[in-house]
Amino acid sequence: MRLSKNFIPTVKEIPSDALIPSHQLMLRAGMIRSLSAGVYSFLPLGYKILKKAMEIIRDEMDAIGGQEFYLPALNPIELWEETGRVKAFGDTMFHLKNRPLVLAPTHEEVICSIAKNHLKSYRDLPQIWYQIQMKFRNEPRPRSGVIRGRQFFMKDSYSLDATWEGLDVNYDLHAEAYKKMFTRAGLKFFIVGASSGAMGGSASQEFMLESESGEDTCTVCDGCGYAANMEVATSALQKAHRDNESKAITEISTPNVGTIDELKEFLKIEERYLAKSLVFMQDKTPILVLMMGNDQLNESKLLSALGSDFRSCHPDELKSLTGADAGSIGPIGLQGFKIIVDRRLQGGNNLVSGANKNDYHIANIDLQRDIKIDGYFDLRTVNAGEPCPKCSKPLRVVNAIELGHIFKLGTKYSDALHAYYLDENGKEKPIIMGSYGIGVERVVACFIEQNNDKNGIVWNNALAPYHVHLIQVNSNNEKVVSIAESLYKKLQESLVDVLFDDRDDVSPGFKFKDADLIGIPLQIIVGEKNVNSGNVEMKSRSTGKRDIIEISKVCQYVEKFLES
RNA sequence: CGGAACGUGGCGCAGCCCGGCUAGCGCACUUGCUUGGGGUGCAAGGGGUCGCGGGUUCAAAUCCCGCCGUUCCGACCA
Fold first, then answer.
1. Does one domain contain both A53 and A188?
2. What residues make up the domain containing A474?
3. Most buried among A132, A282, A429, A561, by the most CB within 10 A?
4. Helix, strand or coil for residue A209?
5. d(CA A89, CA A92)
6. What is the count of structural domains for chain A?
7. ipTM more than 0.90?
8. What are the tens digits of pLDDT across the range A329-342?
């Protein structure tokens, strides 16, 4: 492709709205332009790269027997009413004003409606159905360029099975396919156990990429490779140990002591003896949550412990429910509360907690003796430096970008939409589903996040928009022009995809800067210096290494380079 | 949705606090010359409803009010 005739609008200056490297570079290299918040046009260069990413994904999906669909973005709203997801998505789903249609944010409903009409027998199963298409989500806050947009390409696949064992097989096939895709794309990723959240289902893993600009938080262990989303992460931190003797309960005066730190200072005791109380409302039931010391409650963990949504209490509500303000609330003497306790406190005795009376605490609480407890759960948030639950090395806490997510969905959607099949015994059963997503733009943006330098992007062969970047340095030199032209022709004949900088109105420095910015792995530089002795220069974008080679050996060199 | 900032030729910005000549600078663009291995140099040009609406004033890019847009922090994130 000739740069003189094609549209790759590179820019020198960094657009002020772009903060992260991938966003800045995608704009500067002429890959994308923004149209409005979270909505991007892909220009020819960017689209070419996006298609490369899709091709890798498609290839690995086909390899596990996936069948590609093209599904409608416009969905009748009634379909979404049936699964209750109009409400579940709420404002995140785009609604059309002049038809009862919504823009699909994902496609479980459509897949199910097809399955329901055509997969009637266990003999029709299993199936893997996938699509690589635009999804629409009215994100309240788009950010980080194409990493969180309001419309984006997603590879979504759905496994349809007759048995739970079959689901396990398809789930594992997807996990393996994902590893292959991301490895081929050159991404340094890790896999975490995750919360399946409101999506429902039994197991779920996320494919993550460590990045400062990530919106998820994960713990990772550099020792053994353990990694988990903070929503489910645990550590091998010591539990409360039980003193031999449980002392008698006593009320103690603690004037002006509100926080755990103040209490620790005031009583001069170890933090592990302190039980912090938090109050939530679930429907109309007040919930008291006990945490050790300064341990932070993780709301995702609480959500899975409670099973349904909850909210925190207003200050005046706290006072009327417990008789005290936050800071003096405790488990002793509460009426009508459900009490749940973090596992770290399990078995604890001689604990101090609020007395439900301002400025007073109760000492020597024995959880087994003094309180009726409705359950122990892991509720705390892991902190950096705590020991890994597998190997006890210190954990790191990192931000990460979610590239892909695989779920064992189960029968939630097939039940709601009556997608049933007949088993060997002629018995009607819901199809068992899995759902597996990948953010395509994220694959591209994440690659750039991990592969750039001060001059621009550094593509690998898998995602690079062109195989080689041919630079004709001196357009006024006939010999340079004729050699560059003949190399262009010859390379194209060898099926090499060439970006040819044949511009005659641009200085050499400008061309080199553009080449480094766009970041094609191999640059072929045709300049006066070398052609006079029958040579051209091959420059690797990643290493900066230059080889002077004979003109006749260019194709051979390129071939070898592309294989590596 | 809560908090904050910004909005001035295509891009990056100055001017605004303290109202007053024809709204400026760099990049990009056009033309000519120049240069030709790391965003050449010189010269001459074109391009602006100063986000939108209202108000104050003799006079508003500048002060006041409202709205819209964009970005950041938080909440949310299937």
1. yes
2. 468-563
3. A132
4. strand
5. 5
6. 3
7. yes
8. 899 988 889 999 99
